[in-house]
Amino acid sequence: MKKRTHSSLSLSLPLLISMFLVSACSTSAPVEKSPISGKAALAHVKKMVSFGPHPAGSAALLKVRDYIRGELHKMGLKPSLDSFRSEKAKGIQFHNIVCKIPGTKKNEKRILLLASHYDSKKTTGHPLPEQNFRFVGANDGGSSSGLLLEVARYLKKHPLPIEVRCLWFDGEESIPFDWGEGELAMFGSKHYVKKLRAEFPKEKDLVEFVPVFILLDMVGAKDLSISMDSNSDADLIRIVAKTAQRLGYSKFFFHERTQVTDDHIPFQNYGIAVLDLIQFGGERNGTPTWWHTEGDDLTILSAKSLEIVGHTLVRSLPDVVKRFYK
Ligand SMILES: [Zn+2]
Prior knowledge:
By secondary structure, the chain is an alpha/beta fold. The chain has helices at about 15-25, 40-50, 60-75, 140-155, 185-200, 205-210, 235-245, 265-270, 305-325, and strands at about 1-5, 80-85, 95-100, 110-115, 165-170, 210-215, 225-230, 255-260, 275-280. The chain has a single domain, classed as Zn peptidases (Aminopeptidase), CATH 3.40.630.
């Protein structure tokens, strides 16, 4: 993903004030035990990292994919593959992993999307020596992919009224070292939103069937600080901020403003309300030191951070449904 400047913040002043109040009166101890296991999420990340660097099209990515699918099968879920190629990435076969978790409400066609990318950044074959190093993406790709498995496990046992579709995107990272305009990146999300468009009746806007898309990206750092992405929907941010406050996690959420281009943008382009739960610095700390470096390894992760994000996410979902799936 790519950070942009902070010039065009779309969050309103009342929201910022209410979020300040929310964080100002937060408590430190969580009010309930997390239903999401951070330890289990971290164990998934460790396994994925153990396969080594796994950029799009690599043999190692096949191993990561098989691992994710295998874990979903163990939970009694039935993931499928959305395989495709792109004119812009000759020789690469991409595979998104798609896992539907049915809702409890009969005749409900609407769905909610939860996503992560599972490819790691390609750090070989680039022109400059400093762009070539060993990169396993423990936080960038790994943390969110491991956590999404545990969120899927929870939702299988505690389904929402609507279908939740969990997505592990391939090809989020750019093929050249530098992101450029994102032309040669986000292959999985760009492809999947088009596939989704074809799945629902053309006569109606896609947003009627898919009101919400939530992305997880870089959610496991020890110094957890989820950024306030100004491309994300203000109501979704408000819901998550409120949940975090209730659970005593306010200090981990939305203290740094930034604007990111990530896998949520192709969905936003269809009018879907999007949220990117991402740690990408902002006005205080800037770019994390481990981002797109050899330092993004298991040593920067913590099970607790994964648990905090997972806990907050699953406790936010009922309010998301109330607000967006009336
Ligand atoms: Zn990245």
